Amino acid sequence: SQQGEEDPQALSIQEGENATMNCSYKTSINNLQWYRQNSGRGLVHLILIRSNEREKHSGRLRVTLDTSKKSSSLLITASRAADTASYFCATWGIGGFKTIFGAGTRLFVKA
Amino acid sequence: DTEVTQTPKHLVMGMTNKKSLKCEQHMGHRAMYWYKQKAKKPPELMFVYSYEKLSINESVPSRFSPECPNSSLLNLHLHALQPEDSALYLCASSGRALGPGVGPGTGELFFGEGSRLTVL
Question: pLDDT tier at A3 (50, 70, 90 boundaries)?
């Protein structure tokens, strides 16, 4: 099953620009996580935000969470060509004990 | 480098074959997962093991048979697969086991690089 939608589905930007990806989900959650996946590789955990948190930072990453709107956003500042990848949000549900992924955003950063 | 190791990286099998995918982690994690991922799609949860017991089966067809021999190993046995089962199969582990009282800071998954399966 898929938790929700991400937009945009694909994003192409120039190196140095900021990239913003949005995620919506359907059910109540304990936390929301963002993962990166390089083409054909495994996923790498980027950042986790708890349901009682509204914003979190990690290096060039900024994540926000709005539980009233069931949505989250991931901002990557000063993007680099190496940031080219697919980005997925994932939710850890209350009582569900499982991590469910959103549809993903494919980011392409042009050098 | 990932600390979750999956073998083989690539597997081609016929519809009558029996094969297995293997996953190993040495991080002391107590929860292990199988996900299936088709091209340009998100990973879809298949199975979750917690403390070596099957906790979640997402209505996966019986031609996929998971096994957790010990806390470090997870296998996925494949038999009589269909061409539409071709996909990237991802193993993951988590430091937190499942169950009541699991807090909101949990659920971070560590993924292997996946096994690319092609069914002919």
Answer: low
